[in-house]
Specification:
Number of strands: 2
Strand content: under 5%
Structural class: mainly alpha
Distance between the termini: 31 Å
Shape: globular
Mean pLDDT: 86
Largest sheet: 2 strands, antiparallel
Strand order of the largest sheet: 1-2
Oligomer: single chain
């Protein structure tokens, strides 16, 4: 069975999804979803340990080796992303039982858990597949399930948000499938490792160089739309604001992270660093967009009155940090981007879950409605403060680790202004986090209604992520060593 773990990682949640829907009852559906996602989490940990000990794992589906058959390939980068997705999913499904019961009508609970299983399946599939076409297939599985989960929100604007995401996501998927099709026409292969060998030959021959460049452009635009890089981020704020709290916390910590991983996989594995950064001069596009995202989206976040929307715009800025790391094209820069994949998942998941606790008790996440919650809900607001400290980048938190590596990568290339912008972004994060803290701790509620603390079913998963944001901020060597090795793997650098 251990030899089949790469396939079971994806297949188990996929097969359990229809079972959860057919059960059509909240309790059994939640139990099935929990079993499937926790199986994937345990499997992901085992696969990461195997990859660290033995090197990359390849698995030929049906016994047909690539490039003829479909291949699953797990190296350090993909194993790390698989752990991120499955761990957030495992914590998120525990959080969902209480949150979903409060925000989604009972007759839709089973459908929600089925969609959650499919989303986990799709994101894990994107991370482990070694085949370009199956990237598209799993991308659609994850996207369609995400649209469904967003549409389950109580606010009627959840439907329009899901529709907007559907339109933008379909445009991005179309760009991706066109890029994949062009690569197939020019190389006759869809296996990533095979493409890595054939694309340079086609490019050097001069017979398909324009087509390869066009394919690269289509894939870049499609994936950057999926990961919500400024200015292709317009679908994200509404999707995060109006979806159920459990969905927001899970999606903010996983979906854009997998898309960032996919961007790295395309740039460094399929096309190669030389083509991406020397021929296409990708850094000249990505770095300015990333820097604008950090400043502009942080500024927009400062002026928001809805905390979920504030955190949504903050997420676009945080994507800017990840893409900034990639744009350096160096081991240190890419490692910084990979570290921030994990760190942002932990801290933003904690922040959105804290807001889910607030929504559970007062039915609102508007800043003006959170007066006095520091006293009424001390554990909930304590979790928000913990996640906020990490977002700012205070030492001993994961946010500090990410920004430390980004500043190092910038200074190593003599880009002082980039390091300065990273620091300014941290100060702007302090402003929008403080807005919430000030209202919660230093303003009194006008009504006398008693507000109780959130239930343990919400607090325990939330504090698991808060604890992780401090644990991996103090013990930064664990994630940093994996991220640096993953960056070396992507760049083909021998450690």
């Amino acid at each position: 069975m251990s030899q089949n773990l790469p396939a079971l990682l994806v297949v188990v949640p996929m097969l359990l999804a229809p079972l959860a829907a057919l059960l059509n009852r909240s309790g059994p559906a939640w139990a099935v979803a929990t079993a499937g996602i926790w199986f994937s989490f345990v499997t992901a940990i085992q696969l990461l340990q195997r990859v660290m000990a033995e090197g990359a794992i390849t698995y030929a589906m049906g016994g047909w080796a690539a490039p003829i058959g479909i291949e699953l390939r797990i190296d350090l980068a993909s194993a790390f992303v698989v752990v991120i997705v499955s761990s957030i999913g495992a914590i998120g499904v525990l959080y969902a039982r209480t949150s979903v019961a409060a925000e989604i009508s009972e007759d839709r609970h089973a459908l929600f858990y089925a969609a959650l299983l499919l989303n986990v399946c799709g994101l894990l599939g994107i991370s482990v597949t070694g085949d370009m076409f199956n990237v598209f297939v799993f991308l659609e599985i994850s996207s369609l399930s995400a649209y469904s989960m967003i549409a389950l929100g109580q606010d009627r604007r959840a439907l329009t948000s899901a529709f907007q995401y559907l339109i933008m996501g379909s445009v991005g998927a179309t760009f991706i499938v066109i890029g994949i099709g062009l690569l197939w026409v020019m190389t006759g292969s869809l296996a990533m490792m095979d493409l890595a060998e054939r694309i340079p030959m086609v490019w050097e021959s001069g017979q398909g160089d324009r087509t390869i460049a066009v394919a690269f452009t289509f894939l870049t635009v499609g994936v950057t739309l999926k990961l919500a890089l400024f200015p292709l981020h317009l679908w994200l704020p509404n999707a995060y604001t109006y979806s159920p709290s459990a969905v927001t916390g899970y999606m903010a910590a996983t979906s854009t992270k997998v898309s960032v991983y996919l961007l790295m996989r395309f740039f460094f594995t399929v096309f190669g660093k030389e083509f991406s950064f020397e021929q296409m001069q990708l850094d000249m596009v990505l770095m300015p967009l990333a820097l604008v995202a950090i400043l502009a989206m942080s500024l927009v976040a400062i002026y928001q009155t809805n905390v979920k929307r504030l955190l949504a715009f903050s997420s676009v800025a945080q994507v800017g940090y990840m893409v900034l790391g990639i744009s350096f094209g160096s081991v240190l820069g890419i490692a910084a981007g990979i570290i921030h994949l994990f760190n942002h998942a932990v801290m933003k998941g904690a922040l959105f879950m804290a807001m889910g606790c607030v929504m559970y008790r007062i039915g609102s996440v508007r800043i003006e409605d959170m007066k006095g919650l520091g006293k009424a809900m001390p554990w909930t607001m304590g979790a928000f403060v913990g996640g906020g400290l990490s977002m700012i980048g205070v030492p001993l938190t994961v946010g500090f680790v990410s920004k430390w590596y980004l500043v190092q990568a910038a200074l190593a290339e003599g880009r002082w202004f980039v390091a300065a912008i990273v620091m300014v972004g941290s100060l702007m994060a302090l402003i929008y986090v403080w807005k919430v803290v000030e209202v919660a701790y230093f303003q009194r509620r006008e009504d006398e209604a008693e507000i109780r603390e959130a239930p343990l079913g919400l607090l325990i998963p939330t504090y698991a992520l808060v604890a992780a944001s401090f644990w991996f901020g103090i013990d930064a060597g664990t994630t940093s060593s994996v991220a640096i090795s993953a960056a070396e793997t992507l760049l083909g650098v021998m450690p």
